[in-house]
Amino acid sequence: MDFKIGDDFDENGNVNEHKANKKVVITIVIVISIVFGLLVFFISNAILGGKDKDKDPKVDTQVSLTDENVQILYKYVAYKDGGQGNDLFLKETMVDSSKFTDQDKMYYALRFVEPEDLLYSGKKTKEKQKIYTLSITKIRANLLRFFGNEVSFTPVDKITYKFSFTINNLGVATLTYSDAEQIYNVVFDKEKEETEELVKPYYTELTSATKKHDGTLILNEKVIYTTSGKENTNYRINIYKDYGHTTLIETKQNITADDLKANPISIDNYVDRAATISYTFKVNSINNNYYFDSSSITY
């Protein structure tokens, strides 16, 4: 039966309380039903939606080796110039900030130094070499760039370092710390002449880069280790999988210097048998830049 205007009044024009109360009850029931239905919907959606989100795969993605971040970060840790520099990552199975000595930290801080960071003091050594200065503030800023927000450091008294640039056509410098001035005095000198190194102690190659779902970037580098000696005028070369030289991959005998110059040792021939160094870089929550977190070697 349809409700019509006037249904709530009796034949004498008085309010029909029974019918009016019935309509109020029906209205309340309808409202409660709607509210309950919406409540059930939202709760169910929240639960099921949460489960669906949990089912979302945490996918790792492969990153091109030519990616700008990959190239920059690999320079942070790569064995400098393919044969010079700190070999901490190559010999330690596990490395994090606690494994770095102050000398190590200084070495990695210097990697970020630019020519404009070195200021000519106006002074010269007894040998007429110009003395440049490098602020300890710059060193500390570079350490934060490499290690993230927290790193302790006590300046080392003296260190010799080969920069990636030259000043007055010189690239090797000796840095001596002045605590009173809070600076390093930097003097460039000629490099010592070294004999050509036909067999290097390490050969490395960046082989892959992976980005985790949380932004963490992992670079994988292959490495082989070598020892060499001469038998008469020819070389005997042992190629190993580990820094301790306990797992031999191959021995090459009766190799002449000309052979090595024409066909130098290449890790490309041993990638499948080489060790892998994995470098982990995390995202700094303050400036959103990558910093070195740790490295590990698997054999």
Q: Concise description?
A:
The chain is of the alpha+beta class. It has helices at residues 17-55, 68-77, 88-91, 102-110, 136-147, 257-262, and strands at 61-62, 94-95, 119-124, 130-135, 158-167, 170-178, 183-189, 202-211, 217-231, 234-240, 248-255, 275-283, 290-298. It is built from 6 helices and 13 strands.
Descriptors:
alpha+beta, 8-stranded antiparallel sheet, flat
Mean pLDDT across all amino acids: 87
How would you characterize the largest beta sheet? 8 strands, antiparallel
Going by helix content, strand content and strand pairing, the class is alpha+beta
> DSSP helix count?
6
N- to C-terminal distance: 85 Å
The quaternary state of the protein chains shown equals single chain
How would you describe the shape?
flat
Poorly predicted runs: 1-6
Proportion of beta-strand residues = 25-35%
Number of beta-strand segments: 13
Tell me the Rg in angstroms. 35 Å
Helix content: 25-40%
**Could you spell the SSE succession in H and E letters?**
HEHHEHEEHEEEEEEEHEE
